[in-house]
Design a protein that fits this description.
0% strand, 78% helix, mainly alpha, 9 helices
Length: 158
């Protein structure tokens, strides 16, 4: 902060001190607690969905993950379309962004925002602006980890 103030004029430094003094304190602990409980609730719903697939559709614990994730993304997209997920995100903050439901929300929110520009250039062209880098780096990271795992298994450890 001190090095930042050296670059400012005295008037700017005075304004910065006034701004720092009058800036409202952020309720960090409260926000963390809200995010914890909202994110935990989303994960609880995901566990309920997993148990439903295992109980009623004869999935096993090894293969229940994919339909559970797809269902959670679908639910978050529906809730985003109806405006419910945005209200949850305002309350829960990062608790709604970290689970996979945040991915579904980011994809559909961009599509909804640009729907007036048409389906191809608006929805199709802008839907993956935010989610595209997530997909790209997720696939790339999975590829690198798979290579490392293959090398470790092939050569019996390093």
């Amino acid at each position: 902060m001190a090095s930042k103030n050296k670059e400012l004029t005295p008037v700017q430094q005075q304004y910065q001190r006034l701004q720092d003094k009058n800036e409202p304190k952020r309720p960090v602990l409260t926000n963390c607690i809200k995010a914890f409980f909202v994110g935990g609730f989303i994960c609880f719903v995901g566990q309920l969905i997993s148990m439903m697939y295992i109980t009623y559709f004869n999935f096993t614990e090894q293969n229940v993950g994919n339909p559970t994730v797809a269902t959670l993304i679908f639910i978050s997209m529906l809730l985003t379309g109806f405006g419910v997920y945005d209200r949850m995100a305002q309350f829960g903050g990062a608790g709604t962004a970290v689970p996979v439901t945040g991915f579904g929300n980011s994809v559909i929110a961009a599509a909804i925002e640009h729907r007036t520009e048409g389906f191809v250039l608006g929805v199709g062209g802008n839907m993956f602006k935010l989610a595209g880098p997530i997909i790209l780096f997720g696939v790339f990271s999975a590829f690198i980890i798979a290579i490392i795992k293959t090398i470790v298994i092939q050569y019996g450890g390093l």
